[in-house]
Specification:
Elements (H helix, E strand, L loop, with lengths): L21 E10 L2 E11 L4 E5 L6 H9 L6 E6 L2 E2 L7 E4 L11 H5 L1 H5 L4 H14 L15 H13 L5 E5 L7 H18 L2 E5 L3 H7 L2 E5 L6 E6 L15 H23 L5
Parallel strand pairs: 3-8, 3-9, 6-7, 7-8
Antiparallel strand pairs: 1-2, 1-4, 4-5, 9-10
Helix pairs in contact: 4-5, 7-8
Length: about 280
């Protein structure tokens, strides 16, 4: 039975940070005659926040699925901490645009799902869910059901659920895409704070250039389908950036303009193909 105290490994067992936490080696993926990814070579460093940006349908979500072990490459390979991913990658937590909360469970019991599946004791589960409810600001809504929550609260609950079993790497597929601008900003701030405090690695799929620059350490720009890596950009912004005032920062504006310039040719290519790429 798992105990919360065992979540932090002893110093002598800490992983080698010189090894990429996620690596794709000449990875391609096809579904029948349709090729989605083509010869992707990419390394993600431990503790890094990386946004994946590219035209709709270019294969960004497929890359997350390869990282999670839900799919296998048709050619090449995907690796996690130097080991080839051959099955479900339990070191990752996956969150999509849909929150997938269980409507018959309260907020607390939704967060507890992965802990129950892992065989945690009731006492340990209670302590861990209390900790997460506080972290995402849902303490007052612990006994509420998803139908009683706002969209932002549902997203917080979904985020707490994937944090429950303390995955090393978060795979986030447009998690805030359906929210209004104010809610999106608040959740972006919460996410970045949580990631900075925990040191987790993040692969974050978005179509929003502003969001990519605001959140990421690096951004990977993909071509239209079949997706290949066109550009990898390091953002020259402070790690402790204030997202509420960032849009007024000239450097942020420069980075957004630079990213748009690199992305536009791929959008034009997709448009020339009739949006079918």
């Amino acid at each position: 039975m798992q105990n919360i105290a065992k979540l932090a490994p002893a110093a002598e067992t800490l992983p080698d940070t010189s090894v990429p936490i996620v690596e794709f080696r000449n990875a391609s993926k096809s579904f029948g005659a349709m090729q989605v990814l083509q010869d992707v070579d990419l390394k993600i460093r431990p503790g890094e926040f990386v946004c994946l940006l590219g035209p709709s349908g270019c294969g960004k979500s497929t890359l997350l699925n390869l990282t999670a072990g839900l799919l296998q490459p048709s050619k090449g390979s995907a690796h996690y901490r130097g080991e080839k991913i051959t099955g479900i990658n339990v070191k990752t937590g996956y969150m999509t645009q849909n929150d997938h909360l269980l409507p018959w469970r309260t907020v607390r019991r939704n967060i507890a799902v992965p802990l129950e599946l892992a065989g945690w004791s009731k006492a340990d589960t209670r302590r861990r869910t209390d900790e997460l409810l506080k972290k995402v600001g849902l303490e007052a809504f612990a006994d509420s059901y998803p139908s009683q929550l706002s969209g932002g609260m549902r997203k917080r609950c979904a985020l707490a659920r994937i944090l429950a079993y303390d995955p090393e790497t978060l795979l986030l597929d447009e998690p805030f895409g359906a929210l209004d601008a104010q809610l999106r900003l608040l959740l972006q701030i919460e996410l970045r704070n949580i990631v900075r405090e925990s040191g987790k690695s993040v692969l974050f799929v978005t179509h929003d250039v502003d969001e990519a620059v605001a959140l990421a350490d690096r951004c990977v720009v993909f071509s239209a389908r079949p997706a290949s890596v066109r550009h990898v950009i390091n953002f020259d912004l402070p790690e402790d950036r204030d997202l509420k005032t960032l849009r007024y920062n000239p450097k942020y504006q420069e980075e957004c303009a630079r990213l748009w310039k690199l992305l536009t040719p791929e959008l034009d290519r997709q448009a020339a193909l009739g949006g079918k790429s």
